[in-house]
Design a protein that fits this description.
This protein is an alpha/beta fold. The protein has 14 helices and 18 strands. Bound molecules: 1-deoxynojirimycin (NOJ).
Length: 562
């Protein structure tokens, strides 16, 4: 017995208007600092990425998304941009960016780049001009400068808190050295928020979009897409913001997330991108719940995709997974957008590590030596099963560099090497995100495991990663890498990204049982082995296992559907 298909709403006039590539694409996130270092300075760079593009072809993805490589003081690893039209010297130059895009296109890969419109760096010309020009100036009106409260303006304009910890306001000194106005920064003190009610801000970002579109990029991932517009009057809000939770449905919406005005910006951007040939794509990083609110970002005249963070945070449990998958497909289907799926990125604990804790464990933002440690073996087995479930779903999937090697979080990084501003701004309460950003191991016997030509790596790699390096897994049957490759090949062959999902009855509640066109997918999130259909011949299993007694715990299998 199967349910009605959940994906294609034939009755919806907006569904599937031609099959644009991004509707079913698998998109691989490259974190430039940590992918490949061509010059041995210990920081990854654009030539390093270009040289490694064949890896993405062999793996079998359709596109890559690059985290920021623009000119930046690197206070937040490049999410603090001081010049949106230049490449930071640490990563190369504009010619290197052009060469990367050209090579990717030659290899049949699309390229999505990041755009950071909520804030600039404090070293951006605009912010420097705003500091120099003083209160009431046109230059200050591009940011959110306000007078302080209290008799002498000594108190911040409201109680908003920064996502990285501490107050979201910093007071500046005016040109004569006297204590002056305050500016808003939802993130680090070096990331002042722009004022999106100012038409100059709109014009500037349209121009930046055009700049990179003219350089041939295939789309943009929009940083903090739900944060650009703040409620009028900046009304007070005393709760701690959680980047990883975004809009917490238990409370009313914070006055800085998911305000209705953001949608006007995306309608404007939609028009810009639509003028370019080649199905360019706009992807929202919007930490918003529930799925119905995410769907607002991908209405037909707005963005094309939005990351599915409710899916990322779902535990490895059958009922919860079925619910989030159903909700996602229905919500996105209602506006004719593809669902997206993601398990890891550069801001969260890698999924091998998350699944190494019991479901329901409250996980910290970053793990250190003194914290309780995950069960790596269980985590890896569940992570592989979770990935094979994800890759069987219709829509578009995002992979984060290194997950194809089964990389865990680095959970024993010494605190003195941490670079995430979260660590300092939270007064060493939250360790932050360095553990998922450790440079890639390509070759187990080489210095820095082949990350670069020297021993340098901007964060130390655990010695155990020698055995996880690409060269230790490539061509090894049943390795994590070969399992990812096999799943990606079958996903393409069976056109699962374009398929229709129906739930299959008759399995225990802890088994996620679905059919996507001609493939039956069974993911056993329970503790016991469950029977398989008679004569089942697997197309692929998430780990090498003997299926003669049934489907063991924490394994996903793909079978031909009958
Ligand atoms: C989201 C990015 O993914 C994260 O890395 C960054 O710190 C914040 N936005 C601020 O730009």
């Amino acid at each position: 017995m199967t349910s009605e298909p959940l994906t294609k709403r034939a009755d919806h006039p907006l569904t599937a208007p031609g099959h644009e590539w991004w509707r079913s694409a698998v998109i691989y996130q490259v974190y430039p600092r940590s992918f490949a270092d061509s010059d041995g300075d210990g920081i990854g760079d654009l030539p390093g990425i270009t040289a490694r593009l064949p890896h993405l072809v062999e793996l079998g993805v359709d596109a890559l998304w690059l985290s920021p490589f623009y000119r930046s003081p690197q206070a937040d690893a490049g999410y603090d941009v001081s010049d949106y039209r230049a490449v930071d010297p640490v990563f190369g130059d504009l010619a290197d960016a052009d060469a990367l895009v050209a090579r990717a296109h030659e290899l049949g890969l699309r390229v999505i780049v990041d755009i950071v419109p909520n804030h600039t760096s404090d070293e951006h010309d605009w912010f420097q001009a705003a500091l120099a020009a003083g209160p009431g100036s046109e230059q200050r009106a591009r940011y959110l400068f306000r007078d302080g409260l209290g008799e002498h303006g000594e108190l911040p304009p409201n109680r908003w808190r920064s996502v990285f910890g501490g107050p979201a306001w910093t007071r500046v000194a005016e040109a004569d050295g006297s204590p002056g106005q305050w500016y808003l920064h939802l993130f680090d003190v070096k990331q002042p928020d722009l004022d999106w009610t100012n038409p100059q801000v709109h014009e500037e970002f349209v121009s930046v979009l055009r700049f990179w579109l003219d350089h041939g990029v295939d789309g943009f991932r929009i940083d903090v897409a739900h944060g650009l517009v703040k409620a009028e009057g900046l009304p007070d809000w005393e709760h701690e913001p959680e980047m990883l939770e975004g809009t917490d449905s238990r409370f009313s919406r914070p006055p800085y997330w998911d305000q209705p005005g953001v949608h006007d910006i995306y309608r404007e951007w939609h028009q810009v991108v639509a003028q370019y040939a080649g199905d360019r794509v706009l992807v929202a990083e919007a930490w918003v719940t529930p799925a119905a609110r995410i769907a607002d970002y991908v209405r037909p005249d707005e963005l094309h995709q939005s990351f599915n963070f409710p899916y990322l945070v779902t535990a490895w449990e059958g009922p919860a997974l079925r619910e989030v998958i159903t909700e996602s497909l229905e919500a996105m289907g209602s506006v004719g957008a593809p669902a997206t799926w993601v398990l890891s990125n550069h801001d969260v604990l890698r999924h091998v590590t998350r699944f190494g804790f019991e479901a329901g464990t409250a996980l910290p933002n970053g793990i250190g030596l003194a914290d309780s440690q995950p069960n790596h073996e269980v985590g890896l087995r569940r992570a592989r099963a979770a990935t094979m479930l994800m890759l069987a779903l219709p829509g578009s999937c995002y992979l984060y560099q290194g997950e194809e090697l089964g990389l865990p979080e680095h959970t024993t990084l010494p605190d003195d090497v941490r670079q995430d501003p979260t660590w300092a701004r939270s007064s060493h309460e939250h360790r932050g995100r360095d553990g998922c950003r450790v440079p890639m191991p390509w070759a187990g016997d080489s210095p820095s495991f082949g990350f670069g030509p020297s021993h340098n790596a901007w964060l130390p790699q655990p010695s155990s990663w020698a055995g996880l390096a690409l060269d230790a897994q490539r061509t090894v049957p049943g390795s994590t890498y070969e399992t990812y490759r096999g799943a990606l090949r079958l996903r393409r062959e069976h056109r699962l990204g374009e398929g229709e999902l129906s739930w299959v009855d008759g399995y225990p509640e802890q088994v996620v049982a679905l059919r996507n066109d001609d493939v039956l997918v069974l993911a056993n999130t329970g503790r016991t082995t469950v029977p398989l259909p008679d004569g089942a011949q697997p197309l692929l299993t998430s780990v090498p296992v003997d299926l003669s007694a049934g489907l063991p715990a924490d394994v996903t299998v793909w079978l031909p559907a009958r």
